[in-house]
């Protein structure tokens, strides 16, 4: 049995679009950039914040200012402009009852992820919340996953990563961890072509079915 289940947060456990998009707009406005269409901002949900701002045209020398403004808006309420994906609590409850150890592995700063999980009553399901550091020194998904595995003492072959973006499946593969991709988040089907993806699922119920029958196996080739 795959003992350890690592979950992405944004787009996998919760739908944070409203709060993140508003906070991105605030960060861009703070450095004098014009607003862009919502679709471009939505596509930034998942990858590290610093990387997203650079893709949106924030000059490197103003990156810290954009991040600061984003976090001001986000921590003042944006993080709670969010909702739990219907069916996810039942999945988490069933996995814990089945003896799985659950953790969160997110590119969001861990301090924010912990607050969001507590706010929505999901914190009790997780043995650990692995996330980015506020200074950005740990923010890419592979680094976050390695950190989670180290803290949990989890062998890569006994773990599976569940996420909705390319960063989730690629980060897992880089760590020798298999992954399950979910389609209710912010990714596109083309993002899930990595050979380490054992399934692509479109409902939480289907996710539980896949995880319930997933057993330890050889990790994907890096």
Structure explained in plain terms:
Mean pLDDT is about 95; it is low at about 215-220. The chain has helices at about 15-30, 40, 50-55, 65-75, 90-95, 110-120, 140-150, 165-175, 205-215; strands at about 5, 15, 85, 100-110, 130, 160-165, 180, 195-200. α8 (about 165-175) links the parallel β6 (about 160-165) and β7. The protein is about 40% helix and about 15% strand. The protein is globular, with a radius of gyration of 17 Å. The protein contains 9 helices and 8 strands. It has about 220 residues and is an alpha/beta fold. α1 (about 15-30) crosses α4, α5 (about 90-95) runs parallel beside α9 (about 205-215) and α7 packs across α8 (about 165-175). It has a 6-stranded parallel sheet with strand order 5-4-1-6-7-8, sandwiched between helices. Strands 2-3 form a two-stranded antiparallel sheet. It folds into 2 domains: about 5-15 and about 80-215, HAD superfamily/HAD-like (Rossmann fold, 3-Layer(aba) Sandwich), CATH 3.40.50; about 15-80, Putative phosphatase, domain 2 (DNA polymerase, domain 1, Orthogonal Bundle).
């Amino acid at each position: 049995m795959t003992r350890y289940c690592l979950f992405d947060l944004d787009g996998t456990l919760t739908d944070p679009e409203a709060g993140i998009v508003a906070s991105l707009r605030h960060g861009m406005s703070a450095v004098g950039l014009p607003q862009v269409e919502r679709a471009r901002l939505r596509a930034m949900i998942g990858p590290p914040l610093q990387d997203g701002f650079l893709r949106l045209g924030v000059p490197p020398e103003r990156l810290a200012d954009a991040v600061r403004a984003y976090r001001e808006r986000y921590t003042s309420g944006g993080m709670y402009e969010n909702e739990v994906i219907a069916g996810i609590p039942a999945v988490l409850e069933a996995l814990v009852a089945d003896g799985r150890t659950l953790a969160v592995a997110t590119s969001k700063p861990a301090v924010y992820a912990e607050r969001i999980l507590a706010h929505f009553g999901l914190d009790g399901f997780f043995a650990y919340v692995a996330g980015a550091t506020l200074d950005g020194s740990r923010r890419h998904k592979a680094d976050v996953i390695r950190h989670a595995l180290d803290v949990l003492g989890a062998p890569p072959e006994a773990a599976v990563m569940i996420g909705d973006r390319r960063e989730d499946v690629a980060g897992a593969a880089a760590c020798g961890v298999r992954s399950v991709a979910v389609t209710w988040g912010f990714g596109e089907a083309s993002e899930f072509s990595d050979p380490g993806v054992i399934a692509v699922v479109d409902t939480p119920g289907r996710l539980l079915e896949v995880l319930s029958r997933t057993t330890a196996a050889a990790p994907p080739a890096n």
